[in-house]
Prior knowledge:
Radius of gyration: 19 Å
Order of helices and strands: EHEEHEHHEEHHEHEEHEEH
Structural class: alpha/beta
Strand order of the largest sheet: 5-6-4-2-7-11-10
Largest sheet: 7 strands, mixed
Helix content: 25-40%
Shape: globular
Amino acid sequence: xxxxxxxxxxxxxxxxxxxxxxxxxxxxxxxxxxxxxxxxxxxxxxxxxxxxxxxxxxxxxxxxxxxxxxxxxxxxxxxxxxxxxxxxxxxxxxxxxxxxxxxxxxxxxxxxxxxxxxxxxxxxxxxxxxxxxxxxxxxxxxxxxxxxxxxxxxxxxxxxxxxxxxxxxxxxxxxxxxxxxxxxxxxxxxxxxxxxxxxxxxxxxxxxxxxxxxxxxxxxxxxxxxxxxxxxxxxxxxxxxxxxxxxxxxxxxxxxxxxxxxxxxxxx
Length: 268
């Protein structure tokens, strides 16, 4: 049998750090990272090396933030990938493990966020579905106060990142993954919808339903392309991955204008 080699290039902690600096990531800044490990090529050390490289560049004064979503803690009636039988729904609602910031694994956001949330000193926000984890001197201030009825709005880490002057790094990920655009949905008055999950309350574990802004990433790819043409987006390469780096606040402001004419809104 012919021997096949892994897809390159070969990336190391040192090469990744050098290329991240080349793109413009700076020591001391706060950055929200959306990532795809497989897009980078073959990484010696896997996700640990990627996280180490990011922290090497940010230094002791920088803060690394990642999405650590746990979307499986949601109403099974809305599951589509895959769906489950309706006969199971009540049992799932009764048995779904409650969210625990220390132990609940991530889902659907890749292995780099899972690696970050396990780091000594990492802190994680309290939303049962759409948490963020952070490490660095600004970490606690960014993740604190994440309200259960505010996945990506003013009482979420996205608003704290905006206040901190953070930038967004798409490391092999597309604009479809850019959670910052959701903050704009809250600000344009998007419709509201019920959102359910297992949560710990003063009365113990409960299946909780809250009213929250309805969110969707539909159109985020097109939105991102438009923002890239007009906004301050730095493009580059890290390993084999396309990389984009841009200010979170400017992305949210652009998205608000772009979405306002394309999404249904609730009258104020």
